[in-house]
Design brief:
This protein is about 25% helix and about 35% strand. The protein has about 350 residues and is of the alpha+beta class. The protein folds into two domains: about 220 residues, Rossmann fold; about 110 residues, Beta Barrel (OB fold (Dihydrolipoamide Acetyltransferase, E2P)), CATH 2.40.50. The strands form four sheets. A six-stranded mixed beta sheet has the order 6-7-8-3-9-10, with helices on both faces. It has a six-stranded antiparallel beta sheet with strand order 13-12-11-14-20-21. A hairpin with a 2-residue loop joins strand 4 and strand 5. The protein is elongated and about 80 Å long. The termini are far apart.
Length: about 350
Amino acid sequence: MSVLKIKDVSKIFPNGTTAVDSFSLDVADGELVCLLGPSGSGKSTLLRMVGGFETPTSGLMTIDGEDITNVPPEKRPTGMVFQSHALWTHMNVFKNLAFGLKLRKVAAPEIKRRVEGVLELVGLGGYGTRAVTQLSGGQQQRVALARSLVLEPKILLLDEPFASLDQHLRERLREEVRDIQQRLKITTLFVTHGQDEALSMADRIVVMRDGKTEQIDRPDVVYREPQTPFVAGFIGTMNLIEGVVSNGVFSKAGYSTPLPVSDGPAILAVRPEALDLTASTTGQGKVHRVTDYGTHGLVDLELKDGTRVKAMVSHPDLFQPGQGVSLAPRAIAAYRDGKVIHRTSAVAPAPHPALVDA
């Protein structure tokens, strides 16, 4: 059993900058939790505090009930994989992996067994005698992962390990890492600013902003039910339209839709895939650009005041720049003062969203 608990942890740097502000999180045994947020949100600083590379200004961190808040990195039951690989180029692959075990005075036969076993696990069986400089970027990242796993840590920490790799390799490696994590059932805390990585790998996502938590939920919940306008705009593509509600109707630049909330300002949130379009000479907006991705199309629209809106369509060939369109959302959320005030669930899309309304 390996449970990580973070309680009211803060980090204030000497210049007065607050990187992490009263952050709390419990990571369950065998769970993979992703810290997701923009640059400067505090996610990497938090991970480094868990790994012992930064000292919290206040708060408590425990692993299986044991206080590790002020324990040095080498004495923590954690293993950290960095974005930069941080491999020793003057050592071959085997020696890179064996170094930490030698420091722990593990017997040579056990070192050999564990190093060879973990190289097989990461798909690099037989690579022990290779020089690090002879490896590709993806292979070097596998070695970096193996170097952490060979120490058999209770908690695995991943700090944007795929950021320096190309898109295709990133996708392949994150699938492999997720498979390894699930096979070993190792408790993992993972930092990324890539939404696709968070949505595809995590059991839960922690969306961070300015050192604080905006939302903690399963990936599907974070995507479908964002609790704040920030989360709505940060996860995936979201149309955020600022307007006014009057007598149960939301209005913005000629566009209106029923919204059963009290009068006042509101932000309407609609996913592109939940927005149906109908060609219309008297529409609420006009087509600015159409992009055909093969499997679907993305239509960029302009409302009458220039506000941009995106809609996903199955027949992009039926729309042209300058064409008038009417908008019909199938699922919406509305926000006021940073909180959800209304939400509706999606219904099936219209079969032919581009037919002219006669």
